[in-house]
Amino acid sequence: MFQQRSIRFKLVAGFGSLLALVSILIIIATYSIESALNTGDSLVNQSIHQVELGRQLLGAVRAVDDNMWNTVYNAPQTVSTFVPQHQSDVQIANNYEKNLRHTTLPTSTTQILGQYDAVWSVYLQNSDKELQLLEQNNVNDAQTLYNTNYNDEIQKAFGQLDSFILKIEANTNQILRSADTFSNNSIILAAIIGIVIVCAGIVIAWLLSQEIVVGTHRLKNIAIEIADHGNLAVGMQAEAATKNPGNNEMRHLAAGFSQMSLKLTNIFERIHADSATVGSMTETLSLHSKQTTLATNEVAHTIEHVAVGTEQQTQQIQDISRDIEHLLEQIKVLQDGSQQSTGSMQILEEKFTVIAERIHKLGMRTGEIEVIVETVGKIAE
C-alpha cells in the first residue's frame, strides 16, 4: 500500500514520522531529566535540612549538657530554678529530634538515631538523679555521677550525632554525584538519540532518493539510447523499464515518456509516409518536366518553322503585289491602247497564270500554318 503512494506523500510521511519520533523522544527525555533533577533537588534540599536539624539537635544536646555542668560545678544552690530551664532545654532537643524523624531518613541514619535515643534516655535519667542529689545538697555525688554520665553517655550521644550528620552529608554528596552522573548520562543519551535520529533521517532520505534516482537513471539511459541510436521502441517501454510498482510521480513521468516516444514514433511514421508521397510526386513532376521540355522544344521548332514559312509567304505576297501592280499597269496600257498586238495579250495571260500559281501556293501555306497553330495549341494544353 505504501508503495502506491506518491513520492511527496512518502517524504511527508517519512520525515513527519521522524519528527514525531524526535518530538516524543524529546518530551520523554525532557520529562525524565526534569523529573530526575527535581527529585535530586528535593533530595538535596531534604538532606541539607536534615543536616541543619542534626546540627541544631547536637547544639541543643550540648546546651543541655553545658547547663548541667554549670549547675553541678558552679551553682548547685540554683538547682531549684535550674530544673524548669533544664526541662525546657530537653524539650527543645526532643523537638529537633522529632522534626528530624519526620523527614525521610536513610536506613543507616535511622539506626544511628535509634542508638542515640538509647544513650540520650540514659543520660536524662542520670541527669534527673544528679538534680536530686543537688537538691539533697549531695554535691560530690552529683559531680561524680555527672562525670560518669558525661564520659559514658553524653560523649556517645555527641559521637552518634556527629556520625549522623556525617552520614547525611555523605548521602548529600552521593546525591550530587548521582545528579552529575545522571546529567552526563543524559547528555550522552541525548547525543546517542541525536545520532540515531540523524541515521534514521539518512536512511529514510536514502530509501526515498533511491526510488527517484534509480527511475531517473533508467530514464536517462533510455533517453541516451533514443538520442544515439533513435530506438524509440525502448522509449515506449519506459514505464516498464523503471520497475516502479507505485502510482507516484516517477510512474507518471515514465508513462509520459512512453507516450512521448509513441507519439514521436507516429510522427516519424507519418513523416516517412509523407516523404514517400513527396518522392513519388517528385518523380511525377520530373516526368512531366521532361515532357514539358520536349513539348517546349517541339513548340520552338514549330514556331521557327512557322516563322520561316511566314517569311516566305510575306515574300510571295510582296511578289504577288508587284505582279498585280505590274498587271494593273498592263491593263491600263491596254485601256489606253487597245489596238496593240496579240503578243501583249499573251504576256498578260502568262502574268495571270503566274499570279494564280502563287495564290494557290499561298493558300497551301496558309493551310500549313493553320495546322501548325492547332498543334501548338494542343501542346500548350
* Secondary structure tally: strands: 0
The number of helical elements comes to 8
Helix content: over 70%
Element-level helix/strand string: HHHHHHHH
Radius of gyration: 71 Å
Largest pleated sheet? none
Q: How many structural domains are formed by the residues?
A: 2
Terminal CA distance reads 77 Å
Rounded mean pLDDT is 77
Q: Quote the beta fraction.
A: under 5%
List the uncertain runs. Answer: none
Give me the CATH architecture of the largest domain, please: Up-down Bundle
CATH superfamily caption of the largest domain:
Aspartate receptor, ligand-binding domain
CATH topology annotation of the largest domain: Four Helix Bundle (Hemerythrin (Met), subunit A)
CATH class of the largest domain: Mainly Alpha
What spatial form do the alpha-carbon principal axes imply?
A: rod-shaped
Q: Pairing-aware structural class of the strands and helices?
A: mainly alpha
